[in-house]
Specification:
Helix content is 70%, strand content 1%. The protein is mainly α. Helix 2 packs across helix 6 (116-136), helix 3 packs across helix 9 and helix 9 (172-197) packs across helix 10. The longest helix is centred in the last third of the chain and has 28 residues, at 202-229.
């Protein structure tokens, strides 16, 4: 089956709406006690966004023979858990003790809208619900997969390395290590979760793991590039913040032109795990990531 650009846009829009519906369904109502906490959680989780991680999970699930529907509870639990984990990481990443950002997705960050204490607790609460949901999949492998992706060897370890690298000279290998853990680990996890829940065989899981790793690293390199030359209105946040804070970014290590070339190469490597004449949504999503402007 050939997926045109219109098919991909339709797929992304439809799955984004599914994710929004699931988040609204599984988060407590804003008037649930304590209301300040639940308002902050919903404020951040329902602020929009690409919903890339849950979309990659369901696309991988479908690629491996799973069928997404109202009755496919396991993949929908996983999709929601991934987005809640991602949102909690953004709330904490924006805090004054981390990146001290004022805007996220075109609106004030959680700690600016509420306060720092509520923002920390909102992130913690989203993390809690995410693991309740991933446990509901009934797959121990899925729970372990998500835990490892965000743990000290994954996202959290990458965040520590990112903070400790600020203002210091970094090599290309240093930045790749940070990006693979801080951003790439959860994207890799999303792809693997879809495959695991669909019962993929080992060769397929290995193939999709490579796809997730290449796509995840490319995504963060492109994010670094957009912080230099992106449109703030499209990004929903200020540009130039990484440079101002002397963050460890890929363009800082290798230059802007090389960063563009390396991102393109990674996208090509991601899609090359599939046969050249094979058309599928995972290939289309990787190419979309390679061309993104926000």
């Amino acid at each position: 089956m050939t997926h045109t650009a219109i098919d991909l846009r339709t797929y992304l829009d439809e799955k984004r709406e599914v994710v929004n519906h699931l988040i609204d369904r599984y988060l407590p109502p804003s008037d649930t006690d304590p209301p300040s906490l639940h308002q902050a959680m919903r404020y951040s989780a329902l602020a929009g966004g690409k919903r890339l991680r849950p979309i990659l999970a369901v696309a991988s699930y479908e690629y491996c023979g799973g069928e997404d529907s109202e009755n496919a509870q396991a993949i929908r639990y996983a999709m929601t858990a991934l987005e809640l984990v991602h949102t909690y990481s953004l709330i904490h990443d924006d805090l004054p003790c981390m990146d001290d950002d004022d805007l996220r997705r075109g609106q004030p960050t959680c700690h600016k809208k509420f306060n720092e204490a509520i923002a920390v607790l909102a992130g913690d609460a989203l993390h809690d619900i995410a693991f309740e949901l991933i446990a509901r999949t009934g797959s121990t492998l899925a729970v372990v997969e998500l835990a490892q992706a965000i743990g000290t060897l994954g996202m959290l370890g990458g965040q520590v390395a990112d903070v400790e690298a600020e203002g210091k000279p970094v090599t290309q290998d240093d930045v790749i290590d940070i990006h693979r853990r801080k951003t790439g680990a959860l994207i890799r996890c999303a792809v693997r979760l879809g495959a695991i829940l669909a019962g993929a065989d080992k060769p397929t899981l290995l193939k999709l793991t490579t796809y997730g790793e290449k796509t995840g690293l490319a995504f963060q390199i492109i994010d670094d590039i957009l912080d230099i030359e992106g449109d703030p209105d499209k990004l929903g946040k200020k540009v130039g913040a990484d440079t101002a804070k002397q963050k460890a970014t890929y363009p800082a290590a290798v230059g802007l032109e090389q960063a563009r070339r390396d991102a393109d190469a990674l996208i090509n490597e991601a899609v090359s795990v599939f046969a050249a004449d094979e058309e599928n949504l995972l290939k289309s999503i990787a190419l979309y990531i390679g061309q993104r402007r926000r």
